[in-house]
Amino acid sequence: QISAEPVLSCRGLTVRFGGLVAVRGVDLDVHGATIHALIGPNGAGKSTLINCLTGFVKASGGETLLAGRPVAGKAAYEVAELGMARTFQNIRLFGGMTVLENVLVGCHRNLERSILDLLFRRAKAAEEEARFIDQARELLAFVGLNGRDGQLAGSLAYGHQRRLEIARALMLAPSVLLLDEPMAGMNVVEKAELAELISQIRADGTAILLVEHDVEIVRSLSDRVTVLHHGEKIADGPPDGIFADARVQSAYLGR
Ligand code: ADP
Ligand code: MG
Questions:
Q1: I need a surface site. Which of 81, 147, 166, 172 has the fewest CB within 10 A?
Q2: pLDDT digits (tens, 9 = 90+) for 44-71
Q3: 207 and 144, same structural domain?
């Protein structure tokens, strides 16, 4: 069942770009071990909301709480360190690096510590590196990229690049994973496979905020749906009620 305390929440979150209000006073609660879909037409503010929650874009107002603690003013890497991991609407991988190296980049936060810590760690570095590599290989197998460690990321098929990005995010052992249109450009089979993977991540207890346009996928996969329109939240609730809502139908489905 849904835990009482949300893993990730925001209150009155607002993002302005000059005169444009891309996100306007949004309240959101994402609970552990749930898939929370974030939907809305193009330009509704979905990516901006994710960018703001994860510290890539500064809020103009409101606050974000991770496990009940404010994360205001923190840089993206600090937010990641606190347990928020993400993927991007446009894949961001190092195409000239191997699959394994791309996943290991995800754990850089573990190396950004104080000098003392660093000196102490140097002795343990070799041991740690081996542990990270094992962990990375496990995650690659988990996302279905077994045996591709040494391949260049840029040579992977598009759907596999999406999976690699997810493996990299999971390297942070996040309490919440934010996926910005991970299924964009995929065929029906690839989408179904990725949906299965996302369900498995939920089963492991992780909270997932998922931007997805495919209504059938959102219906079958998500526990809760938030609808944005012109930067504002216009509906929030279980998927069945959401798609029956007249405002959602006119705004999002164009009916
Ligand atoms: P969605 O992801 O729902 O399609 P976005 O969050 O990408 O929507 O965009 C919301 C609005 O904010 C759009 O009008 C977009 O043009 C604008 N926008 C997004 N990012 C920026 C930016 N960095 N600077 C200026 N305007 C932006
Ligand atoms: Mg977007």
A1: 147
A2: 999 999 999 999 999 999 999 999 999 9
A3: no
User: Are both 5 and 79 inside the same structural domain?
Assistant: yes
Whether 88 is in a domain gets the answer: no
Looking at the structure, tell me whether residues 66 and 190 fall in a common domain: yes
Name the residue with tokens 């591709």: 148
**Could you list the residue range(s) of the whole structural domain that residue 151 is in?**
94-173
Nearest CA to ligand 1 atom 5: 45
Question: Is the model's pLDDT at 148 over the cut of 90?
Answer: yes
Q: How far is the C-alpha of 132 from the C-alpha of 134, rounded, in Å?
A: 5
Coil, strand or helix at 11: strand
Ligand 1-lining residues (CB < 6 angstroms): 17, 20, 22, 40, 42-48
Q: For ligand 1, atom 20, which residue shows the shortest CA distance?
A: 48
Q: How far is CA 162 from the centre of its chain?
A: 12
Put residue 173 in one of left, alpha, beta given phi > 0 → left and psi -120 to 50 → alpha. left
Distance, CA of 23 to CA of 63 (rounded, Å):
13
pLDDT tens-digit series, residues 157-201: 999 999 999 999 999 899 999 999 999 999 999 999 999 999 999
Asked if 246 and 206 sit in the same domain, the reply is yes
Whether the predicted pLDDT of 220 surpasses 50: yes
Query: Is 239 part of a structural domain of the chain?
Result: yes
